[in-house]
Every structure is written in C-alpha cells, then in structure tokens.
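Side project, low priority. Logging it here so it doesn't get lost.
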Amino acid sequence: MEENFIGSDRVFKDFVYLDSQSSTPLCAEAASSMQPFLGGFFGNPHSTSHAIGLRVAEEVERARVSLASLLAVRANEILFTSGATEANNTAIKGALTLRRERDGRVGIITLASEHKCVLQACRYCERFLGARLQVLPIERDGLLDLQRLEKAISSDTAIVSVMAANNEIGVLQPLEEIARIAHSYGAWFHTDAAQALGKVSLPLASFDLASFSAHKSYGPIGVGALYVSHRRRVTFEPLLHGGGQEGGVRSGTLSPMLLAGFGAAADMLAKNGKEDASRLARQAEIFLSILRSHSIFFHLNGVSYPRLAGNLNITFRDITAEQLMSRLESLCFSTTSACSGFVLGDGSQNNSQGNLGEGSHVLRALGLDEGERSGSVRIGLHRYLSDADVIMAAEAFAEAVRV
C-alpha cells in the first residue's frame, strides 16, 4: 500500500483498507493543511474585527473557493455544514417547510435505496410537517424507472431527492433526467452527492440542492457542504438557528481546521479525480476477474455500468459475510452502510462490527432475499491501493470462499 496518507506508517500498515464508502483515507494534502491549527494557529472565523479572526476567515473562504471550483459553481452557492447528514436534513426539511408555506406544496418523492439520513428526514417531514411522502422502489439493477417517477410526481410535489452515487451498491442514477422531470412539475431537485464528490461529474447547474461530505472524498471527518442554487433562487428555512452564520442558513461556528482539510482535498481531487476514477475502475475489474479465474460463484449487486468507480457490492453463495470477515481479518471491508445500526431490545441503536444487525435496506430494495443479503459484502477501493494490494485482496477472498 502506498505510504502517502495519514496513518499508513503506523498500525494501519498491517491491514488492507477496502471500506472507502464508509470513509476514505485522509489525503496527505488535507493533513498538511490542517497541521498549522494543531501547532498554534487559532481564531474564530466569525470574529473579523481583528487581524487573527480575519486571517482565519481567509482560510474558510479559501476552502469555499476550492470546493466551488471543483464543482464548477459560484463560491456563494456553497454553505458549510458538519457533514452530508446535516446538509441532507437542512435541504429536505428546509425546502419542504418553505414550499409548504409559500406554495402550498407538500409532496416529497425519494427512493427506497436512499441513505437513511434522507429517508428518516423525509419521514420526519411526513410525521411532523404534513408532508405527503412517496418512497419509490428501484429496479433489480438499482436504478429508478423514470416512468414510475412520471406517474408519481404532481403539481403538489415540493422536492424530489435522489442520491447521485449509492453508498452501498455504487449505482449512478440518471440525475439530469430526474431533475428535468422534477422541474417540469415545478418541484425542486436535491441529490445526496456525498459519495460522488470529485469522483463523478455532477451537472449542478441543473440541480437545486446537493449535499457533500469531506470524509467520503479524502478530507477530514466532521465537515461537509450544501450546494444551494442561486440561479434558481432557492431559499428555505434553516435547520439550526443562532448566530446567523452561512447566510443565516446554518448557524454555528465553523471549524477552520476541518475546512482547510476539506479545501485541500477538493484541490487534490480537481487535479487527480479523473485519473483516480479510471484507475479504480480498472482495479475493480482486476478484482472481479480474479474471482472469475478461481471459478468463484458471485453476483455483482447493482448495474455494472454506470457505477461509482471502485465500488463492488458482491453476493457470494454458500458463505456468509460474517464467515468471510472472520477468515479475512487483515482486510477491512463491510456489509452495508456504516450508518445502518440495528435496534436492541430496549429500543436503542447499536452498530456492531461489520454492521450485521438488521442488514442492508438497499439490498432489500434490490429484491435480495435473506440468504443473499447475508452473503453480501461491500468493497470500496480507494486511490491509495496499489494493483498488488487489490490482487492480494481478491486472492484472499477467493481462498476464503473456497475453504
């Protein structure tokens, strides 16, 4: 494994990390940009009445410009948040509240395969804000049938929310077509693009709202962003109230250190994202070809193309994911989203190692039965894996399945 991300020279060198959909490694560029804040550089970026506050505020705005440049949007269309979960909640709850009050629209349309923070935000709107929620099924290949959307949408629809790149099965939805249908009925279109940032082309000029998370794209955990289209004059009620930061949409003191890392990761991806995607697609095919060469029976979940480069969600036969994890302790992979906890007897949530609780709602939405879901794993390749790492991991999987 290449030695150019933080931690690679310590305990992590003993493992091969294959869980980049839960979090990517922190790139060296991001780590370097954050270091001054650990060595004495400090200040509140909103306290701009003095030189230190102004200097730190410059770092925040530099990050905003970097992210906007990567996305080909204006810097003032980027609002910083704590991550994609907050951005998704802000977009969905805020848009529904505004459009209900202003336009009398109460409809929300989303997909059964969305991230849980989107599904639960939509259900909150249904329960507490009077929304009329429609959760559309997906096809066996993971894609939305656009005719189904055409039948579901109406002049009552306030917002349509569809993920750009699925965090479990990696499928890429036809976002421009979905946005076109939404706009033809006067609805806003929002996409959870956490997995897509810097990896997939995003025509944000056609969208109204989009959510991002730094740690899915080689930046630090704990910071994200919401794109809000100015061209479409999108405004909405904020989720958080307080000091009125981020144009009054997201109150709360921003972290200059995390944003410095976010901006540096965005700059890195602007330079390397296309090349990375090509290499990861090639490495994913190497992984699958090795399984085939060993006559391993498996099924790739979700359409093979288009999909997020490096994402492999695989169902194996006659072996469970739990068994594979016990046999492959040096390989770090998962079975489902890191946010898919299961409910304990007391009603609380728990995330066990491997997320083997309630299982994947995305795989259920695909139509996989319990046995198929129990034999499914999610493998997420990343830019710091060498071909040798991928070959070794694939050979290890083949051996573990044959045992």
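Brief comment: The longest helix spans residues 256-293.
Revisit when time allows.
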